[in-house]
Amino acid sequence: MAEPDIYNLHKEVLHSIERYGRTHKLEIMMRYKLRKKNWLTDFTVGLKMLAKRKLDLLPSRIGDIGKIKRLFRSKLTT
Amino acid sequence: MTELSYYPGCSLASTARENNESLIYLFKHLGFELIELEDWNCCGSSSAHSVNGDIAFDLASRNLSLAPPGRPLLVACPSCLLRLRHAYLKLKTDPSAREHYERTWDRPFDEHLEIIHFFEILDRLDLLSFAKDQTQRLNGLRFVSYYGCMLARPPALRHEKNYHGLIEKIMSSLGATPVKWAYSSRCCGTFLTVARPDIVTPMVNEIIEGAGQVDADCIVTACAMCHLNLEVRCSLKEKVPVLHFSEVLSLALGLGEKKQKGWFSRHLIDPRPMLKTMHLWR
Q: How large is the ipTM?
């Protein structure tokens, strides 16, 4: 694969949508970094974003998450 | 007060909350109540669109199914707008997609649903008439408009409205001076910002440098994702503040300074020194 990092990021975004119905950017970043085993890149950017309250610590979930999960299960995406 | 359904999308609900709050505040002042779509989900964003077209369609179409009939659906994020309009167009033209939709969401497709970008409302109004004392508060402000590429229409949406030129038109009516530059539709790097900052940083720096070269006081953008990339990825010493269109319009109309404090403090490139110099901030 030419750009595995880009594909892995997309997978993390979809994982977040499947789990919450919306994207939780902090968790997406953390999971992506964990997968890549690279914690240092963008560490300062992440701190700045946290300081400016641009990254929520907790995810925002939709009420009817069952429907979203069923969608993903039927398409076997992630 | 005119009621509109409102789809904020994930960016406006989190990283660009200042965009969301200023838009709701501005529209209230203009006589529109934005009613958030109940239990909306992510539109699928670039990721679903890139990885799985079926998921992208289903995620966008669930949001359409939540829109109450008889009320236009207002969208602020250009990327979400593309995804929702794509799904709507498919539902309008493809009977099998409509059958799938009605089976999945257990309700008929509303083919009269109007999906509008917030520019369309602003374009119909004489904004200066809403300004406190009808004063052109933006006098002296030199700005460049940054539309990014999400407001450009992909082939499937080529018959949809073109919004380019609207920021300049509205800002000029409020006293500001539009400055020509080469980067108004240049891509900000979008989602590549996480996986390939090595590509995005020089792209963003070129855009910000471009604004500096024409002596712009600020960059005005209508895209929350572009806004974040321009602020986060700029590594230049000399930065140019980037304002959400909804923020600068609230300033221009002389609306509540107390609320604006909370918006501008969230910026990574602090626009307040520039706003103070322009007498737009105390």
A: 0.92
